[in-house]
Amino acid sequence: MFLHASNASKDHDAIIIRSPDTDVAVLGITLNHAIPAKLYLDIGSKNQRRLLNLGEIASSLGEMRAGALLGFHAFTGCDAVSSFYGKGKSKGFALFQTDDDSACAMSQLGSTQNVSDSLMDACEKFVCKLYGSNVITSVNTLRFELFTRTRAKSRMLPPNKDSLTFHVKRANYQAFIWKRALEAKPKIDDPPGHGWKITGEMLEIEWMRLPPAPDAILELMSCNCKRDCSNNSCQCRKNNLHCTDACGCDKCVNQMEESDFSDDGGQESDEEEEAL
Predict the structure, then answer these.
(1) H helices within the chain, ranges in order?
(2) 137-142: which pairs have CB atoms within 8 A and are 24 or more residues apart?
(3) Contact present, 145 and 136 (Cβ < 8 Å)
(4) Cβ-based neighbours of 217, under 8 Å, separated by 6 or more
């Protein structure tokens, strides 16, 4: 779309793009400086229809933040990259506008296909600030501090470092593609290795490589499902665990089959009962 707009700008002073997509608006703001014609985005319908002057928006943001907007949009959630639970665009954008270090970190996303250690550290600091800390720069440490202080549910905590690493890779990969929207034949790696993986013949998100919690914690996990525990709404199944007698679920299909127990395991249970 923007490659076509760039070519059309050779013969036209103004280009109007009709699209309701946020990605298109963000791309237009960042790429505006590279397209000679005035760039407008036609959005809305009926009485709500209006033209956005993307050049004016870019100017109001300033050169650095206009260029960083693609990285920010990819990092905080877009069609291809997940967002941070409970952290909407508005809170992230407020940080992006007021904190130069955060904006600088977002500007680096998509510069190369591989994420450097310095970029990873900068993104980690951004996430810590997003979750309210200007002092702690480690997401693992911040998770611990927030949990011990507030007993917050896990979904309200920042991601751990392992999960964040893959998130940064996905955001960087998407930003890399967007930043080459004016190239006719950009050289782009396949997604595996950049926050995605191939399972069978399917491309899947690689959420993390470490277990979600230590084995001792996972073994204590239980559910109280009202259904049959056949999908990921069951916390046990979601964490690749079988339901146990400690669970309060009904009509469970996630129990371990008797055949799953080895003879040795059964013998150990008998010996333990005799000892008791």
Answers:
(1) 2-8, 22-31, 54-61, 63-76, 89-98, 100-108, 117-130, 139-150, 161-178, 215-219, 235-238, 263-275
(2) 139/164
(3) yes
(4) none
d(CA 8, CA 58): 20
Helices (H), 88-138: 89-98, 100-108, 117-130
Q: Is the pTM of this model over 0.85?
A: no
124-171 pLDDT, tens digit per residue, is 999 999 999 999 999 999 999 998 887 777 788 999 999 999 999 999
C-alpha span between 241 and 232 (Å, rounded): 11
More confident residue, 250 or 31: 31
Give residues with Cβ within 8 angstroms of 182, minimum separation 6.
Answer: 2, 3, 6, 31, 34, 35
Q: Given pLDDT bands bounded at 50, 70 and 90, which one contains residue 180?
A: very high
Could you tell me the maximum CA-CA distance found in the chain, to the nearest angstrom? 90
Contact 1, 17 (CB under 8 A): yes
Please name which of 62, 81, 88 lies closest in space to residue 23, comparing C-alpha atoms: 81
Cα(208)–Cα(167) distance, integer angstroms: 9
CA 164, 165, 166, 168 torsion-angle sign? positive
Report the distance separating Cα 78 and Cα 23, nearest Å.
Answer: 7
